[in-house]
Amino acid sequence: MMKYIEDGIVNQLFIERNDEMKNLIIIQNDMEMLDLLLFKYPKETKKDVLFHFVNDTRFVDQRKDIDDRIKNSDCDIKYNYQVHDSKDINKDAIQKVELNNKLSKLFFANYRFNIQFAVPIYFSSRVDKILMTDDDIVIYLDPSFLFDKYDDAIIQVPFNKYDPNNISPQFNAYKEVFNLDMTVEEYNKNTMGAGTFIYSFEDNFIDYFNRFYSNKILMQIFEKHYKKYEDGYKNNGYVAKSFFADQFWNFYFKKMIKDRNKSLFFRDGDIRLILTRLKNENWLPKKMLKTPTIIHYAAGTKKKLYIPFLKSLNVVEKNGKIILKRD
Fold first, then answer.
1. Over pLDDT 70: what percentage of the chain?
2. What is the mean pLDDT of the chain?
3. 164 and which of 2, 14, 107, 184 could share a cystine (Cβ 3.0–4.6 Å)?
4. How far apart are CA 258 and CA 15, in angstroms?
């Protein structure tokens, strides 16, 4: 069972398995989005979801801020959560993978979104299934049922596609990592983003990471972009998430879909990815009326518009259906 400390907060490094809880992981950097999550999280839930907030200490250590905001909120998340520092996650994950060359070590230490790799590696020996997401989310309904409904699921996106007339070395490199026989046209039919997904750990899970880190083409692509920045990647450099994190999980899910011959996408509007920037404070896309459990707002601009917008949405019943409606 879950162990609680005196004030109900659990924030030590997660070590023991806890098969009775469902594990939802949030890469938490944005404190305004955390406040919004805590404000909108439903009051009546099964309380069997354990929230893991990942504090990315490579940039700013916000552990105290995360703890204080959760502890001082009226949200029930404060009774079932842990905070994990990325430095601890990386130390643990690096013991589980094979970094056999200088470039793979460079990648692990410096790729901004390596947390998308290290977090699943870290949790793979501790839990059987995770729901992992970025921090630009709001949860409107109890997320517990998602763990029962899906073993593996990911969001479809309209990007992360390859040019069939100019096949890149990167595409072939990922095919090699996952031993996947697929044309660019087949790949482009359904593309995915790594922002939110449910994954049940396979026995050979770590093998794919070892194959990824040892792939010379992929590591050389990173080195090429890494060297563009005179100040070094840790200070000012940026290598797109889509280059590696999104593509890794794209190809991984592509392989699972092909091997199992079944769709592995979220359905029924359970998780809604919003890529359209808000036009004004009164604008409401029609598809928002269908109630998702989680809204992942990935447009990323006009925070003064979209935070009040997401805050104004409430779950209501209309004609026997549950919908989202603005205040």
1. 85
2. 86
3. 184
4. 34
321-326 and 313-318 as β-strands: parallel, antiparallel, unpaired?
antiparallel
Burial (CB count within 10 angstroms: exposed 0-12, middle 13-18, buried 19+), residue 80? buried
User: Tens digits of per-residue pLDDT, 182-211?
Assistant: 999 999 999 998 889 999 999 999 999 999
- 106-156 pLDDT, tens per residue? 889 888 788 999 999 999 999 999 999 999 999 999 999 999 999 999 999
Vertex 125, ends 216 and 200: CA angle to 5°?
80
For the cut 80, the answer to whether the pLDDT of residue 312 exceeds it is yes
Residue 38 CA to residue 51 CA, distance in Å, equals: 12
Using an 8 Å Cβ cutoff, are 93 and 62 in contact? no
Is the entire prediction scored with pTM above 0.85?
yes
DSSP state of 286: G
Question: At what angle are helices 216-226 and 169-177 packed, to 10 degrees?
Answer: 130
